[in-house]
Amino acid sequence: MHSDVVIIASAGRRARIECTGGLAARHTEADTVHLVSAAATPLGGDTLAVRVVVEPGARLRVRTTAATVTLPGPSTVESGAVWNLEVAGDLDLDPEPTVVAATSRHFTATRLQLAGSGRVRLRERVQIGRSGECQGFWSGSLHADVDGSPLLRHRLELGSGSVSDDELGAPMACVSELHYPQAHGDISGLPLALAGGGYLSTWQGQRL
Question: Are the C-beta atoms of 110 and 122 separated by less than 8 Å?
Answer without folding.
Answer: yes
